Amino acid sequence: MEVRVFKNAGEIGAAAGKIICDFVNSKPDCVLGFATGASPVPTYDYMINQFNEGKVSFKDVTTFNLDEYCGLPADHKNSYFTFMKENLFSKVDIQSKNINFLDGNADEEQESKRYAEAIKAKGGIDIQILGIGRNGHIAFNEPSDEFTDEAWKVTLSQSTIDANSIYFDDTEMPRSAMTMGIGSIMRSKKIILIATGNSKAQAVKDMIKGPVTPHCPASILQQHNDTVILLDEAAASLL
Ligand code: GLP
């Protein structure tokens, strides 16, 4: 794992965005894995700016998102699909036919198989962006007794419900989600994990310095051979 510490979220976004844009320019038909949440938004902003300045095009890029809530239609204002549309997809030239999302309302087994096959058919994910939950979760893989492999349906923990319910005002936050499994994430060729703020400091410490254990799902990244962790000073404060 390579760990880099920055002054603020904007600098992290520029660093992660540059890695992605440089890669897209070297391989225009590459496969990118995207995450939702606040952490990757400055990265998406950087990508949008580069696109607006004519420095990069995403028209041949294929994308896979990490996760989606169960029980919400894809076009619901709080769905992760809507989040991606508002924060990136509608602002660059990614083609909708190249956007892949888990369907939180589909049959778990069939959906898991469909997503695994779709990723495989594209030759795997070249760069996967990740955030981290306060409890060390990645995507929606909550702390548990074992690492999962392909996509699965997860019951969300109270910590995640507490953290994410701020995004839900008049809708009750779903209690379950479909998420890429740990195995699918680990098969990405490169991983960029972004964490900012004090609330992530303990999870970041456990991920980097703790044992590799499914009780801190992000700790598995210690075993990935091309992972870069981008932190602000607050998130790095316990290292
Ligand atoms: C959600 C997402 C994760 C994300 C995490 C942290 O639970 N499923 O993919 O990493 O939140 O979100 P944030 O970046 O807003 O702190």
| Series of H and E elements | EHEHEEHEHEEHEHEHE
Whole-number total of structural domains: 1
Looking at CATH, which topology would you report? Rossmann fold
Q: Which architecture would the CATH scheme give at its second level?
A: 3-Layer(aba) Sandwich
Report the average pLDDT across residues. Answer: 96
Features of the shown structure:
239 residues; alpha/beta; Rossmann fold; seven-stranded parallel β-sheet; three-stranded antiparallel β-sheet; 7 helices; 10 strands; 31% helix; binds 2-amino-2-deoxy-6-O-phosphono-alpha-D-glucopyranose
Indicate the topology.
Layout (H helix, E strand, L loop, with lengths): L1 E5 L2 H18 L4 E4 L6 H12 L9 E4 L1 E3 L10 H8 L11 E2 L7 H14 L5 E4 L21 E4 L2 H7 L11 E4 L2 H5 L3 E6 L5 H9 L17 E6 L7
Parallel strand pairs: 1-10, 2-3, 2-6, 3-5, 6-9, 9-10
Antiparallel strand pairs: 4-8, 7-8
Helix pairs in contact: 1-2
The structure holds 2-amino-2-deoxy-6-O-phosphono-alpha-D-glucopyranose.
2-amino-2-deoxy-6-O-phosphono-alpha-D-glucopyranose binds next to helix 5.
